[in-house]
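Hello again, I could really use a second opinion on something today. I've been staring at a protein lately and its backbone has me curious. You're getting the sequence in one-letter code plus the fold written as tokens. I'd be grateful if you could look everything over and explain what you see. No rush at all, and the record is pasted right below:
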Amino acid sequence: MMSQRPKVAVPKPQDYAEERLRSTAKKATEFAQGLCSSCGLDITGNSQRVEIAIPSSVNRANFTLKYDSEGVAKLHAECWTATLKAIDLRDSRRRLVKTSRKSSSTTSALQQDINHGTVQKKFGNTERSLLKEVADNAEFYDSMVTVGQEAIRIARLIKSAKHCIAFTGAGISTAAGIGDYRGKSGKWTSNDLQTFINESVMKEKGHEETPTTSVQDEEEDGVEYENLRPTYTHEALKKLLDLGLLKYVISQNGDGLHKLSGIPSESISELHGNVFEEKCEKCEARYLRSFYTCDDISGEYYEELEDYGRSDIKLPRYAKRCKQCKTSHRTGRRCEKCRSFLMDTIINFGDDLEWDILEKAEENAEKTDLIISLGTTMAVTPANYLITYNEKAGLVICNRQKTDFDYLCKRKTRAGVPTGARVNIDCDILMKFIMSLLLKDEELQQWEGDREQRMKTYDSQRLVTNLSTGSTAPKEKLLTENKSNKKEINSKVAASSHGSVTNKGASKGDENLRRSKRLKTM
């Protein structure tokens, strides 16, 4: 009797994809990310790192850490922890980095250099004060091995989810050229740090280092909204929607990049509006434009009036001051249906969210079983409450800074299986890993290769800002013709949360969200 040939286990296609990703992540660890600003050794892709930034105008000649020309310092996670201890930061425990055992392959020699080199370093009063101030805005980067491992788990969660939704913030648009708000060099971070320097450091006498600062023109180094294009993450979310793996997108961004990527209005709630969309103040017909719709002239007039009690700007006749945000939403154009004035859809601090848009977000947040939060610290209310709307839903967070919701990513099922994940890395990097797992090789190559053609499509939907080209604006799109019905929402949120948009941690000077066609790239 012939013996049967032993059966050989044939790897599944998904196993190949995961193994390929592990190999890619491992190769990425070989590339240096620069030198540590503390110990001076290489920071490789296999190292966890932390990045901080101080104003580039500060005189750093006598500082202990080595900063680049932009005022950025990169440190090993261990060096950052040692630095916090060295500056006697009392509440440093919540900022300390827990090094992953799986990804840490730091040699004992490096550990010794870190432990015996960094802890003994002394920081001057000015640098010590600045480090304490920027600690809360430090950005953390996981090793590429850790990112690869988490991507595998996240891809499995997405495939098994019945109603996966995305929750996005400014961090997914930084690769497009938009500066964020709370990043190490974000708008509010920089404003707060500049105020700290002016009020504290500059006024103190006897400092061994005297920082010098300069106020940059607010309109310098800007990016026109019309010139922005969807990032890899924007396009990945659109692809996941097409595949049915993602059911809905909730966004706090007003840059219009989600809809430009092709996500239809019925699949997204733009909670804070869209600078390319305006609506009739009477019949509420909505128009998606190829150009920036907000009236900055009226906005600047009311801002100066609020700040200085007067303004030399000539106020347009159509302007009407909003009782809530104290600026004007009217754009100067009229509705094609009823000839009433059109308004921008941007939600400023103090404004109410649009009820129908919030209602759709609530409906999806209630039935979701997996939330993918990308590029946001989730500090703005009432938007952030949607994260906890369904207590049973798994939560995946990809953000370079700590958030108040990180603990929710550690929840597990009764069987001990994690329901979420927490990744510290750029959103585009994580999404590239995830898409390589969810798409077959041929499909991935085809989709990524078609980006050039998609860019041409995006260009056709935006008014070219360089008028010398002679380009004209595409025909505008009427989104809705019928008046929408405003109705009460049976919400789990307290009435005060629905009352107005607020931000925990916004700069004093940003109590009213300042709108400008030219965005700072910070």
User: Anything to note?
Assistant: The chain has a mean pLDDT of 79. The first helix runs from residue 13 to 28.
